[in-house]
Design goal:
Layout (H helix, E strand, L loop, with lengths): L1 E5 L15 H23 L4 E3 L11 H12 L5 E3 L16 H6 L4 E3 L4 E6 L2 E5 L11 H6 L8 E7 L17 H9 L5 E5 L5 E2 L6 E3 L17 E7 L8 E7 L4 E8 L3 H13 L6 E11 L1 H15 L4 E4 L5 E4 L13 H14 L5 H16 L6
């Protein structure tokens, strides 16, 4: 028996830094990842798809987002089982109970809106732990596994949330207790745990039966989310009393959110950064956050700004990560002596240079920016 395990589609997601046509293209890519499950299922012979929570970004969605999402699910062509998660819980405002969703939900899509055992077909069951609020006060997995005896059917646990052994705050009441989950697996109450909430593909614990699939399209930068963009292809041998499990993964995602940390102190460092950015492929589907540190002359800072301006036009987004960027600009001796200006203008430049050397003040930053602009207008900082 083979199925696809995916999660955290978060359809309707927006990223505040995407402007112009980048946000619509990113939204379309998230829907395309969902629609692409149909071709993958046909290729590998998957029987159905489970979505382990956070199908939607939240419950208050534009009607167009709901309709387009449901149409993408229809195109998958095989049964799709949706689990409400923390972003789209089954609360009073749930998208799953809205008139639009219920009217347009295709026949191959089932919302697992009840905690407990759901029969997929004879010999195959899903044990679901849906969220009913954004802040559960108990371990929903422990609740649904409590008293669940081994049966004759193959069982897949479908759940959402953090696992205690991976969370920095293991005392949170809603965390999935891995010991409880392993106990259920060891005694055969369930045979595979399909988890959502962590957006990177992650194997949990020993035995290879507990996995986060991650989001099929990237949602955060690679220092936070190192391995997104995957769907898991899961095989369970239902002819084996032990229900042997094999997990493979396929990449569906096409976007990349990259963080680059660089020391830039001179024109050579800027040229190296330029080369690194130039070599990055699929720039229109790539978001770049730069953490730059160093000390530059005004001429070099103008060259850096020109470099960043150029690539900002090519990438889906490129910009400085302010909290991790520390660039000191120190005018070099003689840097402004050959501009061909004199009189009042030359005196004004000298005053700006003196102010720019004052250090980390607002006035110094303004003077540095003014001098950099002057050099760029004089074509000394062109990339």
């Amino acid at each position: 028996m083979r199925f696809l395990h995916t999660a955290d589609w978060q359809l309707g997601m927006t990223r505040h830094f995407l402007a112009g046509d980048a946000q619509p293209r990113y939204s379309a890519a998230r829907r395309d990842a969902v629609a692409g499950l149909g071709a993958l299922a046909a290729e590998v012979g998957a029987e159905f798809v489970v979505v382990a929570g956070d199908v939607f970004e939240h419950n208050q969605l534009a009607p167009q987002v709901v309709s387009q999402s449901l149409e993408a699910m229809r195109g998958i062509g095989i049964p799709v089982y949706l689990l409400p998660g923390n972003h789209d819980p089954l609360d009073a405002a749930s998208v799953y109970t809205s008139a639009l969703f219920t009217a347009e939900c295709p026949g191959n899509v089932t919302v697992l809106d009840r905690a407990g055992v759901h029969q997929v077909r004879p010999g195959l069951e899903i044990v679901a732990a849906p969220w009913r609020s954004k802040v559960p006060t108990t371990d929903l997995v422990a609740d649904v596994l409590d008293g669940l005896s081994p049966g004759t059917a193959t069982r897949i646990l479908l759940a959402h949330g953090g696992v205690d052994e991976l969370d920095p705050d293991p005392g949170k009441p809603s965390l999935i207790r891995l010991a409880t989950l392993h106990d259920a697996l060891d005694r055969g109450a369930v045979h595979y745990a399909a988890l959502g909430d962590k957006h990177s593909r992650t194997r949990v614990g020993a035995g290879g039966r507990v996995w986060y699939s991650g989001s099929p399209e990237v949602t955060n930068f690679d220092d936070v989310e190192p391995d997104p963009g995957h769907v898991l292809v899961v095989d369970i041998d239902d002819t084996d009393p032990r229900r042997a499990v094999t997990v493979d993964s396929r990449r569906l995602g096409h976007w990349r959110f990259a963080t680059l940390r660089r020391q830039v102190d001179n024109s050579r460092d800027i040229a190296d950064l330029d080369l690194n950015l130039d070599l990055m492929s699929a720039k229109d589907r790539t978001v770049v956050r730069l953490a730059l540190t160093g000390s530059l002359t005004v001429t070099d800072r103008a060259a850096l700004d020109a470099c960043l301006d150029k690539y900002a036009r090519l990438f889906a987004w490129l910009g400085l990560w302010d909290r991790h960027t520390d660039l000191a600009v120190i005018p070099a001796d003689g840097e402004f002596t050959d501009l061909g200006i004199g009189g009042f203008a030359a005196a004004a430049v000298e005053e700006l240079v003196a102010t720019a050397r004052e250090g980390d003040t607002d006035s110094a930053a303004d003077a540095q920016a003014a001098l950099a602009l002057l050099l760029r207008l004089a074509d000394r900082g062109a990339a």
